[in-house]
Amino acid sequence: MIRSVLQLLILVSLISVSCSRRNNKLDSRNLIPEKKLVSILTDVYLTDGLLEIPKISALFSSLDTLPSYNQIIKNYGYSKEIMDRTLKYYFIKKPKKLVTIYDQVLATLSEMESLIDLKAVLEERRRLNQWSGIEFYSFPDPSATDSSFFDITLSKPNNYSLTFSVTAFPDDQSHNPRFAGYSSHADSSNTGKREYLKPISYIKDGHSHDYTINIYVFPNKPLFIRGLLNDFESRPVEWGSHIIIENISLTAGLAPL
After folding, report:
1. How many whole angstroms separate alpha carbon 6 and alpha carbon 229?
2. pTM here?
3. Among residues 248, 189, 193, which one has the least CA distance to residue 224?
4. Domain count of the fold of the chain
C-alpha cells in the first residue's frame, strides 16, 4: 500500500514538473482541506490493500485502480482535478507540509492496524475462554450475596491459565482477603483427594494487580475446580468489604495479555 501511494505522489510530482510554466498560478484557494486530504489518502491506502487480496481482486477484476481512486475522491465531494491541484500545490509550495500530511496518514493506518490486531486477540481469547462464572465482581454488592464462588469442570487435557485482576482498597475491612481454590477429579469431586491451588493474598493499596493460576489437566482425567475469588479469614461488617475483581478468564494453552 505504501508503494502504491508513493507512486501516486511521484506521478503527481512529474505532472507538476511538466506543468512548471503554470507554477506561478498555484495558490491555496479551492484546495482540499488538510483533514479531508488525510482521510482521502487513508482510504486510497485501504483500497489499494484490499485490491491486492486475491479473493477481492477476483471479484473486482474488471475494476481499474485509478477509477477506484477517483471514486474515493468523488465520495468526499471533490473532483480529480481538485485533488491533482491540491497535491501539486503541497508538492511545489509546501513539500514539508506534504510530508506531515503523509505522516498523519501512516499514523492513522498504524492505529487502525493495532486496533484490528488487538480485537483479533481478544476475540480469540473470548472464543477459548472457559470461565463460566461472572466476569466482574464488585464488593460490596447490594444486589447479590457477596459470593465469588466458582465451580468449573475441565475435560480436555491441556495447561490452563486462570487469570484475573484484583483491586483491594485500603479501607477494605475483611481480614486477609485472598484467592482460595482446589481441584479434584471429576469422578470423585465430593470424596476424592483435593489438590489446593496456589493461594494468593491481595494487597490493599487501591491499585489493580494481575494474577495467574496454572492448572494442568491430564488425559482421561477431567477436573473440577472450585473455590472463591474473594475469600477471607473473617467476614467484615456490613458493606465493609471494598474489592473489585475483573478481567477473569480461563484459557487453555495461552499466556496472559
Report:
1. 55
2. 0.52
3. 189
4. 2
